[in-house]
Amino acid sequence: MINAAKIAHALALLHDQRVVHRDLKPENVLLRRASGDPVLIDFGIAHVPDPRHQLSEGFIVGTIEYMSPEQAAGKSVEGGADVYALGVVVYEWLTGVRPIRLPRTNLAELAEELRKREPTPIEDWRPGLPIQLVELLDRMLAKKPGKRPTALEVAEAFEDVTRSLRRGTARP
């Protein structure tokens, strides 16, 4: 699997500079040919949250399938929106599907569904994953931004899961 900890570390560096990517998705993660390390690209809609320059309510930018509920609502976003998007990406890498299957309809209805629907438990698709990973993804995909870990906490948690898997101490 692509090193999600390195992506989370990159997000943490961005967030330390108060920059939010706002469009994290698989297409915006490239891999270095020699090392396989992930590289974030496409900062076209990245921004620094500033309450003096908020988007008007209901203005949505990004890729809806990877948006956090607050971003889908057209609200100002902070680093938690990127953490949510990374949760969606990792869930999709592990299962082949996104945690919330959105119906094909207009953008406003998609955004409303994203805000209302709960993610399908990852265990429904991939039973036996380490409980630490399942719990981490659950926290990353929390509807409320304040319930999500920071990008640095996510990076450290992914590193812990990786170490547990290597030692054979990960609990299913």
In short:
With 172 residues, the protein is mainly alpha-helical. It has helices at 4-16, 69-72, 79-95, 107-116, 131-140, 151-167; strands at 29-31, 38-40.
Descriptive tags:
single chain, 172 residues, mainly alpha, Transferase(Phosphotransferase), domain 1, two-stranded antiparallel sheet, 41% helix, 3% strand, globular
Decide which structural class fits the backbone. mainly alpha
Largest sheet, if any?
2 strands, antiparallel
CATH superfamily: Transferase(Phosphotransferase) domain 1
Instruction: Please state roughly what percent of the residues sit in beta strands, choosing from under 5%, 5-15%, 15-25%, 25-35%, 35-45% or over 45%.
Output: under 5%
Q: For the largest beta sheet, what order do the strands appear in spatially?
A: 1-2
